[in-house]
């Protein structure tokens, strides 16, 4: 139970953090200011893409864990008296695993569409860029395309 609380607290801290750090405008800004070699840039790009894909799933998981943790502590907070059998039935009734198993594919499809839309937007923005900035942007777009089609894992 302490382990679940620690996971829930960690999920909450991730939710309240700033997700806009990884927006395409800020990525371009940081790319211009930081000069790294090609393999480091590739790794940074992959890390940013992974965080963008995992963020909605972390939020989804956090909501389900928060509901379950709230339901777990509710009988103790309002001083409900359950027998062991009733308490086991209560815990199984608030268990979120079936809902999680049914709705996780929806979250994955939504995330895939989001990544595809972002890739298309980045390609459109690349048309407006010139010189070295355009070459860097093209590299990022190609990597995002390969990653979204699971060619690069």
From TrEMBL:
| GO annotation, cellular component aspect | membrane
Which keywords does the record carry?
Membrane, Transmembrane, Transmembrane helix
| Membrane topology value | Multi-pass membrane protein
Q: Where in the cell is it found?
A: Membrane
InterPro entries annotated for this entry? 7TM_GPCR_serpentine_rcpt_Srab, Nematode_rcpt-like_srab
Indicate the transmembrane segments per the record: 58-78
Q: Among its keywords, does the record have Transmembrane helix?
A: yes
Q: What is its main location?
A: membrane
Q: What is this protein called?
A: 7TM_GPCR_Srx domain-containing protein
Name the species this protein comes from: Onchocerca flexuosa
């Amino acid at each position: 139970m302490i382990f679940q609380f620690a996971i829930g607290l960690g999920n909450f801290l991730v939710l309240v953090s700033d997700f806009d750090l990884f927006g395409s405008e800020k990525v371009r800004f940081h790319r211009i200011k930081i000069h790294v070699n090609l393999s480091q840039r590739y790794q940074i790009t992959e890390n940013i893409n992974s965080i963008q894909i995992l963020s909605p799933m972390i939020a989804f998981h956090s909501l389900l864990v928060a509901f379950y943790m709230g339901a777990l502590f509710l009988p103790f907070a309002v001083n409900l008296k359950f027998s062991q059998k009733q308490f086991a039935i209560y815990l199984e009734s608030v268990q979120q695993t079936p809902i999680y198993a049914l709705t996780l594919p929806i979250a994955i499809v939504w995330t895939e569409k989001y990544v595809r839309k972002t890739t298309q937007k980045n390609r459109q923005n690349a048309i407006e860029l010139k010189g070295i900035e355009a070459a860097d942007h093209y590299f990022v777009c190609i990597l995002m395309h390969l990653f979204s089609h699971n060619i690069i894992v």
